[in-house]
Amino acid sequence: MKRIYKALLLLMIILILSLFMTLSAILFIRNLNREQYFTDLLKQADTSLNTHNYPKASTLLKLSLTHAASKKQYLRILKRAFLLAEKMNDMTVLKEIALHAALEKNRDEELVFIAARVYMKAGDTGKTLELLEKPAKTERLLSLKVEALLQRGETEALVSYYTPSQPFRFLHLLSTDDPLFYEDAAHILKDKRLFLDTSLLYALKRNNKEALRIISSYEEDPLFQAPGVFIAYDAGEYKKARQFITIILSKNGADNALLYCLYGDIEMHYSEYDKAVSLFNKAITYNPLVSETPYLNISYIYQQRGDLQSALEWLKKGSRNFPQNKNIVLEASRFFIGLNDRETAFSIIYPYKGRDYMIDLLLLYLNQENMHPSRYRTGLWDLFNAHPGNEFLCQFLVLYLLGREDINGVESALTLFDIQRGIGGKKSEYLSWVPYYKGICKVLSGDYQKSLDFFASSLAIEDNPYVLFHRALVHIESGNRKAARDDLFTSKEIIMEEGKNKRFLSLVTATLGKVFILLGEYDKAWDQLTLAGEIDPENYQVLTLVKELEELQQ
């Protein structure tokens, strides 16, 4: 009997184990199918995202929520939802996904953050704050909350997160680098240090005008004066920079060598050379190693005055204090080039061969007379290839080749430059001089229409007076005189605003006179030619055009 009982018990155990294994297998297969279905949904959502079918992507993401069985899967959905938030204008479906996930897993920090960020992206700061209403446990949740409060202008709530002794922590909580956010926060909190940080952020973004606007509001505050010097100087607002410098020096004594350097640069800008020399001397007195700039500038001033001996002495002083400085070496070499003493210039710079591309280029130039033209050209190509993507070397090579009307060589150099800077030339397309020189090549080969296309590409990047001038010449050759007139007027305005290159301004003005002659507007032609002659009396083109105009009016 006992044997029969034991046999039945063993049989029951085997049956139960078999049933359990069968159920486990069924559940495993079911979960596997569910996981596969979930994965397929996400793949379809990804495909829809990549093909810009955003409505279908949002539907698939919403459907996949019902099949997500873990936090990991929820995160996979929400991350895609956030990606979709950046692509879609209609946020309705996406907000439903975010809210559903946030409520479903409202204790999960990762999901709350992603959901709240979706609402921020949609501009719904109310819902963002609702999701973040519980005390934030991490810096990023707190940062998101501060950003939402700032957007809503909820001053009192915002102030509660601010500690005057830790202003940088508060700035860190603003999860944006938009200076407008910082400036708004500074106004709300009335903390001048935040205004200073805002101005510095504007300066970092190269918006010196806005940086200086804030600095100028606090120009009597010592905290703002030193940054104000550098911001104003970088912005070209030299009078304002000089004003800050004089205030600092009058209050803090006269031992700031760097300020004296900047002060000297400013006085040079206003052609106050005696004062500039005095200021540079003070900078060197307080710190002989402050910079090579005062030595170079004093030498330059003496060169302009014709005192070459003093100019050379200052270069020697600079080279003793900065023996490895390439700027001193280059300037010393150029000094002797100006004296037509190429041998001395070469001997000064030769020991520095291979240290800098400018030094190697100058060595090549100084040795040009001793080289066959083909060897000099090869040397330029070798230097260009040794420094791929170097704009200066490429332009130098292109200008040399253009001077010899080597169109194929120019096009090869520009093509290689495109390749060096990025596949297909994508990066170099943003450099206006690349299509400009390509346009010049097309002019030389007689393909005017193609040259106009290249000039247009260059001008789409920046308004360059030289590009406008050359496009005007093409318009003149093509008989489009009104288009030439418009380009020349624009070119002339830009040159006059810059206040540089009077000789080129005279050339543009004279060419404008020529266009008016072609248009039969002789009075306007006289005005332009008279002005061109006043700007540059040595512009012989003016005399030729005046003679042509007189013959037409006889």
Provide mean pLDDT, rounded. 76
Globally, the shape reads extended
Beta-strand content: under 5%
First-to-last CA distance: 145 Å
What is the count of helical runs? 31
Strand tally, please? Answer: 0
Q: What is the CA-based Rg, rounded?
A: 36 Å
Q: Supply the helix-strand structural class.
A: mainly alpha
| Sequence stretches where pLDDT stays below 50 over 5 or more residues | 22-32, 165-169
Helix content: over 70%
Characterize the main sheet.
Answer: none
Structural overview:
- This protein is mainly alpha-helical.
- Helices cover 77% and strands 0% of the residues.
- The chain contains 31 helices and no strands.
- The protein has helices at residues 2-50, 54-65, 71-85, 92-104, 109-121, 125-131, 139-152, 155-159, 167-173, 179-189, 192-204, 208-217, 222-234, 238-252, 257-269, 273-286, 293-305, 308-321, 326-338, 342-349, 357-366, 373-386, 391-403, 407-421, 433-444, 448-461, 465-478, 481-498, 502-518, 522-535, 540-553.
- It starts with a helix and ends with a helix.
- The model is unreliable at 22-32 and 165-169 (pLDDT under 50).
Q: What are the defining features of this structure?
A:
554 residues, mainly alpha
What's the short version?
It is built from 31 helices and no strands. About 3% of the residues have low confidence.
